[in-house]
Design goal:
The chain is mainly α and 237 residues long. Helices cover 77% and strands 5% of the residues. The protein folds into two domains: 169 residues, Orthogonal Bundle (Helix Hairpins), CATH 1.10.287; 42 residues, no CATH class. Strands 2-1-4-3 form a four-stranded mixed β-sheet. The chain is rod-shaped, with a radius of gyration of 41 Å. The protein binds zinc ion.
């Protein structure tokens, strides 16, 4: 293998490590968001159940008020009975009292129903609270460890960038320019191995005679994709 190719390969290996690290780094905010969304989802569910319970309590308050009003009304009607003159008025008032008492019974039933609803809503809210607290805690821990990982990766990346500078400084300028140009156009592999007698970059067949030369250590430049084609451990005719 020619010297400049060995150096380019070093550079390429280093860039591959850099790419991998960058991809890992980029995945961290996404992962953080997943955990945050999860916690927020639990928070929203908790709020929803709390609102339900608040609504039940509000209903209970209103029912208790209705109940007190009805009792007062019945007492009022009863007090007015003695002052009524005619039989018709008296009967009508008795009917009124009976109706109001019937309403009181209905309100009592609603109060009992609301008590069951409250019990159930309290249990649901307790479960939601536990789940929310657990998720928030887990999410915070996960975020903490992700931040730690992020810092580690950033430090590693800084070291790799330094290493890359050293390696790049050893590559002859014309080869380096070509390499950088290919990479900036999106190519990840500029030095590539022969794969089944073809260029590893674009899979164009290479003349057998050339393949022989490449195997012998000569560098071949692919006319189609511009890759430096070399013989590697997994190369074959
Ligand atoms: Zn090619």
């Amino acid at each position: 293998m020619e010297e400049f190719i060995a150096r380019l390969l070093d550079l390429q290996d280093c860039d591959r490590d850099i790419d991998r690290l960058k991809a890992d780094l980029e995945s961290i905010p996404r992962e953080m968001k997943i955990h945050r969304d999860d916690a927020q989802g639990h928070e929203a569910r908790f709020n929803q159940f709390r609102d339900t319970l608040d609504g039940i309590k509000e209903k209970q308050k209103k029912l208790a008020g209705d109940r007190a009003d009805n009792i007062a009304r019945v007492a009022d009607y009863k007090s007015r009975l003695v002052s009524l003159k005619s039989n018709t008025e008296y009967t009508a008032m008795l009917q009124q009292i009976a109706n109001t008492e019937k309403m009181s019974d209905q309100i009592d039933n609603l109060i009992i129903e609301a008590m069951y609803e409250e019990d159930e809503a309290v249990q649901i809210l307790e479960r939601a609270t536990k789940e929310r607290d657990r998720t928030v805690k887990r999410s915070a821990l996960r975020e903490q460890s992700l931040k730690l990982k992020q810092r580690e990766l950033e430090e590693k990346l800084a070291v790799l960038h330094q290493r890359r500078e050293i390696i790049a400084s050893k590559v002859e300028s014309k080869h380096l320019k070509r390499y950088e140009k290919a990479r900036s156009s999106g190519r990840r592999e500029v030095v590539t191995g022969i794969k089944h007698g073809s260029c590893g970059g674009c899979l164009t067949k290479i003349p057998p005679q050339k393949v022989g030369e490449i195997k012998g250590g000569k560098t071949y430049t692919c006319p189609l994709c511009g890759s430096y084609v070399v013989w590697t451990s997994d190369s074959s005719f």
